[in-house]
Amino acid sequence: MELLKTGIIGLDDMILGGIPKGHIVAVMGPPGTGKSTFSLQFIYTGLKNNENCIYLSLEESEENIIKTASIYGWDMKPYITNKKLALVNLSTLNFKSTIDRVENELPNLIKLFHGTRFAIDPITLYEMIHDSEPERRNHLFNFARLIKETGITAVITSEISKENPFYSRYGLIEYIADGVIILRQVRPADMSAVTTVIEISKMRHTDHSKEVKPYNITKNGIVVHSGDEVF
Ligand SMILES: Nc1ncnc2c1ncn2[C@@H]1O[C@H](COP(=O)(O)OP(=O)(O)OP(=O)(O)O)[C@@H](O)[C@H]1O
Ligand SMILES: [Mg+2]
After folding, report:
1. What is the mean pLDDT of the chain?
2. pTM of the predicted protein model
3. Which domain, by its residues, includes 198?
4. Which residues pair with residue 28 across a beta bridge?
5. Does residue 179 form part of some domain?
6. What atom of ligand 1 comes closest to residue 40's alpha carbon?
7. Does residue 35 line the site of ligand 1, with CB under 6 A?
8. In this structure, how many other beta carbons lie within 10 angstroms of the beta carbon of residue 175?
9. Does 219 or 192 have the greater pLDDT score?
């Protein structure tokens, strides 16, 4: 089984080397826990490995994505120039029709581009365009199938549910995904500091770690302290 390293120190150990090729992995967490950083780190690791990558942002402009990445020391510009990275920003104007267009073009783009890594940050806006649960479920299911058929390996970030931090906003993506990674903030009883922790709640075909591990966002991106205990 071919594995794609996330490039996140400690995490690749927890999943025994990397994300199995062709998997869709959902990365979920509350605001500021590093979802965008995670997706950028996954893409940048691919670019460093001479892979072709596609990054679809539903929130940030292309300029902002490049800036965020550069703060971590990841220079995306040469890869865009050399056509190794396709940065796609979905404008919130006419969101529905833009999504239709992207869906129509995506399989071809992935094929022509020989893309091996795909990231969407975050999927939540995509889900919000529907008012009813069946519509949302159908759309997400079809979208996942479309991605799966291309054979690309994908990281899809998601906001979490307000009621339960172990579920995504709409509670759908975790069923569609082959892997689910949960980012969380925990506070000690004395409320002295916040610790960010990561856990893998699912990774198909992998005897992954079931432990909860602390992580930090550093100037070089996310670092998981897989040797440390939280509890
Ligand atoms: N250079 C840095 N060094 C250390 N920590 C940083 C640095 N840059 C950003 N951070 C941390 O990363 C957090 C933002 O991470 P990121 O944008 O990836 O989170 P997110 O989950 O995508 O947030 P949102 O839900 O708002 O989209 C900041 O709140 C800060 O704690
Ligand atoms: Mg973000």
Report:
1. 94
2. 0.96
3. 3-161+168-224
4. 158, 182
5. yes
6. 18
7. yes
8. 14
9. 219
Q: Sort 52 into a burial class: Cβ within 10 Å, 0-12 / 13-18 / 19+.
A: buried
Q: Is the pLDDT of residue 231 over 80?
A: no
Give yes or no for a contact between 33 and 21, defined as CB atoms under 8 angstroms apart.
no
CB neighbourhood size of 177 (10 A): 26
Number of domains in the chain: 1
What is the average per-residue pLDDT within 101-124? Answer: 93
pLDDT digits (tens, 9 = 90+) for 132-185: 999 999 999 999 999 999 999 999 999 999 999 999 999 999 999 999 999 999
Q: Is 219 in the pocket of ligand 1 (CB under 6 A)?
A: yes
Q: Is the CB of 37 under 6 A from ligand 1?
A: yes
The confidence band for 6, taking pLDDT boundaries of 50, 70 and 90, is very high
Q: Do residues 129 and 103 make contact, with C-beta atoms less than 8 angstroms apart?
A: no
CATH code of 38's domain: 3.40.50.300
Structure tokens at 171: 């509670």
Tell how far the Cα of 80 is from the centroid of ligand 2, in angstroms.
Answer: 21
* pLDDT above 90 for 59: no
